[in-house]
Design brief:
The protein is of the alpha/beta class and 459 residues long. The protein contains 14 helices and 17 strands. It folds into three domains: 151 residues, Rossmann fold (3-Layer(aba) Sandwich); 112 residues, RuvBL1 DNA/RNA binding domain (OB fold (Dihydrolipoamide Acetyltransferase, E2P)); 69 residues, Helicase, Ruva Protein, domain 3. The structure holds adenosine-5'-triphosphate (ATP) and magnesium ion. This is RuvB-like helicase.
């Protein structure tokens, strides 16, 4: 078995098997009850008309139908170079509509939400933040049949030898790994760099792993279910003993985004030299992803697509509060929209005529310069009446598992009609009727904008 190092470098072909950084769109997150968890889609019939309420959406039929048209355009790949701009008063469901559009496009489609003000950071250039979001919204599904050694680890013995260079201490010269499947067992003698990878993945005896034969990349699949414990709650995933031989060909499907590939190739990896040790100690998080690196990644990706190994899955970038962007960001957005690898862009704002940020005299509709507005399809959201607000509150209550007492719904709907669906909680706080809703209200009415935005740490 050839045991090369799995360390990617910018000049070598991009190791798409390099572990992507923890993805922002993990399944664990979406299962949480969030302000929009009742939204399952646009709720349109097959001929594109909106039912009064469907897929968690109440009313707002015009906007939903318009978004349905956009979804069709996107699916037939006729929406490139354009953006969807959602405008309307606060709390009228713009963010919800954007989410519904992403649901309609399919669940494996990357959805990358951000808020306009996120671009203002002292560490990273504004345009860089935008570019990164765009890259994160382009998925790549890589299908490969690879030669792997797979099985449950039965033995893990590093063999040490004297270090010929320093005379002090010992180094690992190779590692013996025993793998077991239903059909048989095999003992492998592996290179020390693979041992490092094994340590990094925290692999111990009893885990099911596979080692890729020609790159030496090690992946932990889970713990063998022979070791399953009787705890009710556990973070471990148990997998059955693999079938077939230890050495076999296996079809691997990986979903990564271009952003993941950029990040994986920009970060120093491997731990060969002192600098990369420093790099992992000083948790810098972001290393500069240069344009050159992006072009490099694009080239490799294009190669994979041409060979039929990978498939590009264009996703959705959602920029909420788009009026917070400034004129520089807007011009850059224009450029990004026209690039060949552009995802679908959805913008949202609740401003009417407003000054374009970063200028002193340009006032334009929605605070968006007219040249970008020209590229947008604008969809307006309408306000709700009391009955509709009542329905939304009822929906939310169901999602939160709350039972509303008599009269409560009417009372909240009345407040919702007077204020917005979000900010009227204060005036009813303290009422004995609604104390039971404290949780629901804080979730539903005081929905912080950040709930849709992935904070820096989870990136
Ligand atoms: N038509 C609707 N059907 C069901 N739920 C809705 C509808 N419209 C809004 N909601 C819910 O109401 C809450 C507020 O809506 P949302 O956050 O989408 O408003 P917004 O237009 O983005 O407001 P802002 O301008 O303040 O960002 C959310 O929980 C959303 O899911
Ligand atoms: Mg919003």
């Amino acid at each position: 078995m050839k045991a090369t190092s799995a360390t990617p470098s910018t000049s070598a072909p991009v190791a798409h098997n390099a572990l992507p950084p923890p993805s922002a769109t993990s399944n664990a997150r979406s299962s949480r009850i969030a302000p929009h968890s009742h939204i399952k889609g646009l709720g349109l019939t097959s001929d594109g008309l909106a039912a009064p309420d469907g897929s968690g959406f109440i009313g707002q039929t015009n906007a939903r139908e318009a978004c349905g048209v956009v979804v069709d355009l996107i699916k037939s790949r006729k929406f490139s170079g354009r953006a969807l701009l959602l405008v309307g008063a606060p709390g009228t469901g713009k963010t919800a509509l954007a989410l519904a559009v992403s649901h309609e496009l399919g669940n494996k489609v990357p959805f990358c939400p951000m808020v306009g003000s996120e671009v203002y950071s002292t560490e990273v250039k504004k345009t860089e933040v935008l570019a990164e979001s765009f890259r994160r919204a382009i998925g790549l599904r890589i299908k490969e049949t690879k030669e792997v050694y797979e099985g449950e680890v039965t033995e893990l013995t590093p063999a040490e030898s004297e270090n010929p260079l320093s005379g002090y201490g010992k180094t690992v010269s190779h590692v013996i790994v025993g793998l077991k499947t239903v059909k048989g067992t095999k003992q492998l003698r592996l290179d020390p760099t693979i041992y490092e990878a094994i340590l990094k993945e925290k692999i111990v005896v009893g885990d099911v792993i596979y080692v890729e034969a020609n790159t030496g990349a090690v992946k932990r699949v889970g713990r063998s279910d022979a070791y399953a414990s009787s705890y009710d709650l556990e973070s471990e995933t148990y997998v059955p003993l693999p079938k077939g031989d230890v050495h076999k060909r296996k079809e691997l499907v990986q979903d990564v985004t271009l952003g993941d590939l950029d990040a994986a190739n920009a970060r120093p990896q491997g731990g060969q030299d002192i600098m990369s040790v420093m790099g992992s100690l000083v948790k810098s998080g972001r290393t500069e992803v240069t344009d050159k690196l992006r072009r490099e990644v694009n080239k490799v990706v294009k190669g994979y697509v041409d060979q039929g190994v990978a498939e590009v899955v264009p996703g959705v970038v959602f920029i909420d509060e788009v009026h917070m962007l400034d004129i520089e960001c807007f011009t850059y957005l224009n450029a990004l929209l026209e690039s060949p690898m552009a995802p679908t862009v959805i913008l949202a704002t609740n401003r009417g005529n407003a000054l374009v940020r970063g200028t002193t005299d340009i006032v334009s509709p929605h605070g968006v310069p007219v040249d970008l507005l020209d590229r947008c399809l604008i969809v307006k959201t309408d306000g709700y009446n009391r009955e509709q607000i009542g329905k939304v509150v009822q929906l939310r209550a169901n999602v939160e598992g709350l039972k509303l007492g008599p009269g409560v719904l009417e009372r909240i709907a009345e407040e919702g009609e007077r204020g917005s669906m979000r900010y009227d909680s204060i005036s009813i706080n303290g009422e004995p009727l609604v104390t039971a809703f404290a949780d629901m209200l804080s979730n539903f009415l005081r929905q912080p904008q950040s709930s849709l935005v992935f904070p820096e740490e989870v990136r």
